[in-house]
Design a protein that fits this description.
This protein folds into two domains: about 220 residues, Rossmann fold (3-Layer(aba) Sandwich), CATH 3.40.50; about 55 residues, Alpha-Beta Plaits (2-Layer Sandwich), CATH 3.30.70. The protein has eleven helices and eleven strands. A hairpin with a 2-residue loop joins strand 6 and strand 7. GO terms for molecular function: iron-sulfur cluster binding; metal ion binding. This is (4Fe-4S)-binding protein. Pfam families: CbiA, Fer4. It comes from Caldisericum exile.
């Protein structure tokens, strides 16, 4: 079983567009959408839901009114103003730190797990998809990403599927680390801008730390050819392969508006041809 992650170091570079295109170019695949805070790969792959699971990733305080003596210690020590005058807990404000349970003299406060989001298993045209959605304001997205990846591996083993394509979370934070660790290779989608270069350097450092083989893909390279050249020179210096350069083309936006990966919507476009060439090159090397 091989896992390849598509990451970007920042949002908006075209990561999901590439992941969706790679997915439909594979004969049989399991896709994992690890952007659990704002997933959107389903908009391109139109998965058919077959399984839903609750995800309990955090805890919240609950006050047992029959035991509470209303001493006020919990409310006085809560730094998040989550406890009302009536000694009830606002679960949206509660950060689950447990201080209220610690200071309660009669053990009236209990820390209980709460549903932080939902994970899904779905069928797509050429395989399966593991994806999830964290509830607004909830934390532990890194833990949910791991859950999504574990489910993808279970499906791949059960269905004897050899490739897992991971649409990683944007940035370099905890959910990105959970998206990257243990994968066979990563395609970093970057763009020829000042912020694009900066974030490319950060994500490559992260991949080096976790010993994941990187490939770099420059999206919309022709909007700033000088910056694109700077990225190529940097990659040569670091010994990182640039597997392709995709030109800017409004056809990509048109495909997204129509809810299709560009390689499926207009397969003969220059963008589609380049993505196919890139996928062939990447898939042969991991």
């Amino acid at each position: 079983m091989k896992e390849i992650v598509i990451i970007s170091g920042k949002g908006g570079t075209g990561k999901t567009t590439i992941a969706g295109s790679f997915a439909v170019l594979t004969d049989k695949v399991v896709v994992a959408d690890c952007d659990v805070d704002a997933p959107d790969l389903h908009l391109l792959l139109h998965p058919e839901l077959i399984e839903t699971s609750e995800f309990a990733g955090s805890k919240s305080a609950f006050i047992n009114k029959s035991r509470c003596v209303e001493c006020g210690l919990c409310k006085g020590n809560c730094k998040f103003n989550a406890i009302s005058e009536e000694f009830s807990v606002d679960t949206h404000s509660c950060e689950g730190c447990g201080v209220c349970a610690l200071v309660c003299p009669v053990q009236a406060v209990e820390m209980k797990e709460k549903v932080s989001g939902y994970s899904y298993i779905s069928k797509i045209e050429n395989g399966f998809m593991s994806h999830a959605l964290l509830n607004p304001g909830e934390e532990n997205s890194g833990k949910l990403v791991t859950f999504v990846r574990d489910k993808a591996k279970e499906i791949a083993m059960k269905e004897n599927i050899g490739k897992i394509i991971i649409d990683g979370a944007p940035g370099i934070s905890c959910p990105v680390i959970s998206s990257v660790t243990g994968t066979n290779a990563g395609v970093v989608v970057t763009e020829p801008t000042v912020s694009g270069v900066h974030d490319l350097k950060r994500i490559l450092e992260l991949m080096e730390h976790f010993r994941v083989k990187p490939f770099v893909l420059i999206n919309k390279f022709d909007i700033n050819k000088d910056k694109a050249k700077e990225i190529e020179e940097f990659c040569v210096e670091k010994g990182v392969e640039v597997v392709g350069k995709i030109p800017f083309d409004p056809v990509v936006t048109t495909a997204m508006v129509n809810g299709e990966p560009v390689v499926k919507f207009i397969p003969q476009s220059e963008v589609s041809k380049e993505i196919k060439r890139i996928w062939k090159k990447v898939s042969e090397n991991f």
